[in-house]
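Annex B. Sample input.
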Amino acid sequence: MLLTQPMAHGALVARYKRFFADVRLDDGREIVSHCPNPGAMLGLNAPGLGIWVSPAAGAKRKLAWTLELVEADGGLVGINTLHPNRLVAEALAEDAIPELAGYSLHRREVRMGEASRVDFVLEEPERPRCWLEVKNVHLRRTGTLAEFPDCVAARSLRHLKELAARVAEGDRAVQLFVIQRTDCDRFAACADLDPAHASGLDLAANSGVEVLVYGCDIGLEEIRIARRIAWRRP
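Annex B, continued. Sample output.
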């Protein structure tokens, strides 16, 4: 997935109200950037961190820049939570995720349960329908371990329960975590920040929901899903 160019480098001044970030660009300009991430962004929201912003694609946007990448722990971290679905759509089209290859139809934003929509439904004649939910991961606190979530994620827990219900009806269901950083080779549910979600993920897996974790290659021009990451169960 290509990032919108030309990107500009700067330093984070403050991230606030979830979707706003004050940035001081290297050329001295001070801007307000859209921050496309509703989470806590633990470890990625400290003033002074190097960041990269992309120009807004639409002329009607109130904010002319979008926060895309944070420089942390010697590498680049993608914080845009809109990207994982785009990355997965691209990977599905290329059959780049072996566990999800071989489906001729990929439908997006399909109603699931009473009040949710699933990110993808994959279909192929004579195969069970596959319900696929995608989550963005950017939290790393110790070693090479990536964790999700970085705050209470009630919506994600609801999705896990609905995925399990699809399995009970005879379909296939997959929870896919996309790690938008390059310094992690393990993944675990973040039980101390959201014990309910950690328990729910384990319960969903025991109910037949497949849990996949993939890492990315990240550059200043492109992000791509690249490698399978091991899930560390409780």
